[in-house]
């Protein structure tokens, strides 16, 4: 039987069965599944790695017999070339899902500005600290890193943080040292499983140390030593 519109319209699932497969006599592997509820779905059946696989082409009605036949011919061509149409479809679906997850994570990371990160640090790890520290620490971070507050936290580089520390150190060395300590604590928390994971934070926390000295002969008072 060739699967034409007239033939398909006359197909029905045999009594007592949940569904039945009807195969085309001209195109090997091309068929249609008819359920007891009356739905009809085009399929392409083939063997891959010793197993029978069925690739859903689409419902009858959404696809005409001619359209479904073309899809089956394309799938058969891939099989003859050594491909696995069903496996390829699943791989594409997994890749699309992974891309969606990645984009969602990217959007969430971009929405997490430094200002928001400070808030989360304050209501998280700082919740068991003294009231004065919970107030002072975020205030120092916001004051010392004010130009970076609206930036996505993950995008802030070690160099940018260093510029802010050097600027503060040129005026208030002690304040710069405190800011550096607070920054390391917050970024360290973020890196250890908080809301941010970033190589730039890891670089700052893991091997960056601020050395401060008093101004002398115009020499910069802050610099990083990387170990």
Automatic annotation (TrEMBL):
Gene3D superfamilies: Integrase, DNA-binding domain (3.30.160.390). The keyword Translocase does not apply. It holds the Pfam family Arm-DNA-bind_3. One of its GO terms (biological process) is DNA integration. PANTHER family: PROPHAGE INTEGRASE (PTHR30629), PROPHAGE INTEGRASE INTS-RELATED (PTHR30629:SF2). Residues 3-91 form the Integrase DNA-binding domain. Belongs to the 'phage' integrase family. Keywords: DNA integration. InterPro entries: Integrase_DNA-bd_sf (IPR038488), Integrase_DNA_bind_dom (IPR025166), Phage_Integrase (IPR050808). It comes from the Bacteria. This is DUF4102 domain-containing protein.
